[in-house]
Amino acid sequence: MDFYDKDLVSIRDLSREDIEYILDLSKQMVPYALGEKVHRALDGRILGNLFFEPSTRTKLSFESAAHRLGCDVIDVSEMSMTSIAKGETLADTIRMVDAYCDVIVLRHPYEGAARLAADVSINPVINAGDGAGSHPTQMLLDLFTMKEAKGSLDGLNVTLLGDLKYGRTVHTLAQALTMFGVNLTLVAPESLQMPDDIVGRLKEKGCLKKQTDNIEDVISDSDVLYVTRIQRERFPDPAEYQKVADTYRIDNNLLRSARDDMIIMHPLPRVNEIATEVDSTPHARYFQQAFNGVPVRMAILCAILGGEMQ
Ligand code: CP
């Protein structure tokens, strides 16, 4: 697709060629994201950053990406600080913010909120996570991280571990990986396995290698181990969360069975699922992954706002 002036709401908005375009542009952005080069491709533009759920990485990396390109940012971090607290609808709030900026980045607790925002906004809307739905910019930075580490995505053995039911990052990532013929292994407690509709799509594409609850059985076959947090905030019943909290913990003992070049990714934040001793091993890629949010979001903003990098 031509990204110019378009929304980025879900994986359904993207083809393999679109993803490859953003990954290539992201690579060009790295020296600018590091501050080694300066380019004000989006000088005079304004980004509206609306985060109605907590965020460290997505919110700040969008801000950093915008500033690195000379784009101004206006932001809201809490619904209680907007007129939503007085009863204004999300649709009217979006119409207002739309009038004050050139692109809206929205994180919202409800699945479908970004699609609603895109429907009422004239300017493009970027989904920064909607409930247990989609997180397409995270998916793009995840693919960028894998490609940088492995050289190519095609045919990789990727293991997704943890909360595959509520984790929006893995929902989006699993579907994107099918475009690259990746072999996916899904590791989760039975109650937190990937939703059936996504599993069905993985099977249709011939990308589902295995579903299990045992990481020890599959770690030695993995090129990439993608770990996720059990999403406590999405459990309707806290007692159900307690049953599965701390099910998995990646530590150096477990990693003895892993390939030397296996990388560990995590969208972060982590709780207990990766021991801090893993951080200093060559497997750990999650902090690099979080940095990669800057060049990838720079590429997305440039593509959508039409910033020229010459
Ligand atoms: N990965 C991610 O979405 O992190 P934040 O919730 O901190 O934005």
How would you characterize this protein structure?
The chain is an alpha/beta fold. About 35% of the residues lie in helices and about 15% in strands. It has helices at about 15-35, 55-70, 90-100, 115-120, 135-150, 170-175, 195-205, 240-245, 250-255, 285-305, and strands spanning about 45-50, 70-75, 105-110, 125-130, 155-160, 185, 210, 225, 265. The protein has a five-stranded parallel sheet with strand order 7-6-5-8-9, covered by helices on one side. Helix 1 (about 15-35) crosses helix 10 and helix 3 crosses helix 4. The protein starts with 15 loop residues before the first helix and ends in a 5-residue tail after the last helix. The mean pLDDT is about 95. It binds phosphoric acid mono(formamide)ester (CP).
Structural class, by secondary structure, is alpha/beta
Portion of residues in beta strands equals 5-15%
What best-fitting shape do the alpha-carbon axes yield? globular
Can you give the helix content as a percent range? 25-40%
How would a textbook summarize the main sheet?
A: 5 strands, parallel
Bound molecules: phosphoric acid mono(formamide)ester
H/E topology pattern: HEHEHEHEHEHEHEEHHEH
Number of strands: 9
* Parts with pLDDT < 50 across at least 5 consecutive residues: none
What is the rounded Rg?
19 Å
The DSSP helix count reads 10
Span from first to last CA? 20 Å
Strand order of the largest sheet: 7-6-5-8-9
Mean pLDDT: 95
Q: Can you tag this structure with a few keywords?
A:
310 residues; alpha/beta; 4-stranded parallel β-sheet; 10 helices; 37% helix; globular
